[in-house]
Amino acid sequence: MSEKKTDLELIKLVKKGDSKALNTLLELYIPQLTAFFRYIHVAEDYIEDLIQETFEKMINNIDSFDENKKFSTWLMTIGRNLYVDQYRKKIKSEEFIANEKLDNSFSDPENEAIGKLNVEELLNSLSEKERFIIEMRIFKEMPFADISEITGESETSLRSRFFRVINRLKTIA
Q1: Could you tell me which residues come within 8 angstroms of residue 150 by beta carbon, excluding any fewer than 6 positions away?
Q2: pLDDT at 38 over 60
Q3: Residue 11 belongs to a domain with what CATH number?
Q4: Staple 148 to which of 91, 94, 155, 169, CB 3.0 to 4.6 Å?
């Protein structure tokens, strides 16, 4: 029996209110979510809360799951989106960041454009996908290969989008 079929069977049972099936999904995916959150450098003391929020959102939205898609990808996307939302809220809630300019001593061109804007202006001028790439690449210093694994997009596509954003920011700055 393939893993995908097992997931689908469990999901169908969860939709019917089967708590054993839900516990099985939890047992299967808590280690995977934990590894995923560590991979994207979520603080260790926040991982458990984020896993709980991810599963709560999964349960609340289980009816919207497309059974033609892979469950693990859907679940990781929920977790990633929750993390990005929390990260964005944290940045906006820290008043000193909104008023601070980024360090202008950056030597590479991708950071030069960003150095001229304050963080709040930068984040507000980007789409959600653009913000995620910028946050992961610049603020988390994550390689494109790692961002590609998280998003499921090709590294080439991510690089292209990233440099389009950087060039657009250069014209703003």
Answers
A1: 39, 40, 76, 80, 136
A2: yes
A3: 1.10.1740.10
A4: 155
